[in-house]
Amino acid sequence: MANLIDLLQYPFMVRALLGAVLLGVVCPLLGTLVILKRMAFFADAVAHFALPGVVLALGLGWSVGGFLTGFCMAAALVILWVKNQTAQAADTVLGVFSATAIALGVVLLSWLPGYQGQVWAFLFGDILAVGWVDLGVLLGLGGLVVAFMIFTLQAQVLINFQPDLARVQGFAVGAIEIVFVLLLAGVVATAIKLVGALLVTAFLVIPAALARNVAKSYIQMLLIAPVVGVVGAVVGIVASAVLNTPSGPMMVLVQAGLFLGSLVVVRK
Amino acid sequence: MFVLSLKNVTVDRAGGPVLKDVSFTVQPGTLCALVGPNGAGKTTLLKAVLGLVAYRGQIRAVGDLGYIPQALRPTEPFPLTVLELVAAGCPRRSWWWPAAFQGASLAALDQVGMAHLAQRPVGKLSGGEFQRVLLAHALIAERRILLLDEPTTGLDSTGIDDLFELLARLRGDGVTMLMVCHELSWVTRWADWVVCLNQRVIAQGKPLVALSAHNLALAYPGRPPGGYGELN
Q1: With contacts defined as CB-CB under 8 Å, which chain A residues touch B77?
Q2: For A29, how many CA atoms within 13 A lie in the half-sphere containing its CB?
């Protein structure tokens, strides 16, 4: 315990914990929609575009953060459009895009001179390096996500259940879907810096999947998911500090442990 | 007098027309059955009426339309209660919709005999219970014209009987229904008007007239004589 209190004397640790709490709320909230829409691999495909996005930003000499967000949003819109235009199964289309993104990133990387350590930082993330600006961006995005959830919740019930019912009710289904994927891409691009492109999907999917396991209603699922996200992230980051292990993977491992526990406790 | 009128409605797809020059009217407070083989354009016609697909021709509806889609009961864990689903159908909007519209939802569920299952997850309903919940979802919006797409799918004969009895009660309350249905013997017993469709209107009229052996042979080409079950 004394060690933990000592750790909180360091500003980077305070920022990391704040980042973990914000991530723990924002990602699972959006994640509830991700899993009900069966879009886990969509988020994963968008995350894969972080590699070419980071490499392009470095090559062009632009700010990585802002460029990456725009790049991921553009990629998300293209993936959504192609997914809606083709008769191919969604996972096939997403598989094509994921592999293409990685291949593009590696080819672009080969053209950059010298060693590019920043690229690997984005692949694996580092929540201990999070700055106040990053936290501000995450807080702003979190506000947008909460507002989106509040204003579209009634519509989302119908969209996830039977989209035509939502259309007949007069909900702007297409516009809601576009705003959703833009927010998803924005959150993914921002969260990548904290937990890495390879693990960001876990933050969206695992707490929401646990919530779906135990919830008896839609509202319960929405309330449980962020609680699981925050508990998993905070316990994970503290455990990583105590055990001297990487923080992003520790947070994911704690969340995965909670998820497995829920499978044992709740058998459907 | 009509509440729903279609005049020369045509729906085109890439491979050719799905519907050609379809015209008929639906009278208020009646149950109109839309029958025809798979691929006849029945669901497309409902979607055209709802404005979900593009069409040529004229469609006029006097009143708001409710829709009961050809929806299969969710089998995977979908944490959505009956009350949450029905309340989401309320034409008013609220971010805390299950609580805000609880009274109206329970009243709609009561109309279809499902108020006692308000807190049950939708995925744990039987096929018949699920269809009743979808009806309540349309009723909470006070829709007086209901478009039902194969509501008898997955129901046994008792379930179909129960559903038609409920639809007859709604008809008695003045609700108008246009229903896609494959159960011809039930259609004969319960429908007021039948439109026999196979891309175009093959026949329409009172059930026994529209569903004559001659019309059925035209609507269901290739089906063996006597292949319409107890109807013939």
Answers
A1: 212-213, 268
A2: 23
Per-residue pLDDT tens digits for B104-151: 999 999 988 889 999 998 888 888 888 889 889 888 888 889 999 988
Q: Does B69 touch chain A (CB under 8 A)?
A: yes
SS (H, E, C) A109-146: HHHCCCCCHHHHHHHHCCHHHCCHHHHHHHHHHHHHHH
Cβ contact, residue pair B93, A219, below 8 Å: no
* Distance, CA of A26 to CA of A200 (rounded, Å): 12
Please give the Cα distance from A210 to A262 (Å, whole number). Answer: 6
Residue B232 pLDDT grade (very low, low, confident, very high; cuts 50, 70, 90)? very low
Residue B82, domain member (yes or no) = yes
B-proximal residues of A, 104-123, CB under 8 Å: none
**What residues in B contact A210, CB-CB < 8 Å?**
none
Query: Which residue among A157, A164, A165 sits closest to B80, beta carbon to beta carbon?
Result: A157
Same domain, B231 and B161: yes
In this structure, are B42 and B106 located in the same domain? no
Nearest CA among B171, B134, B122, B131 for reference residue B155: B131
| pTM, entire model | 0.85
Which structural domain range is residue B168 located in? 1-63+144-232
Are B134 and B23 found together in one domain? no
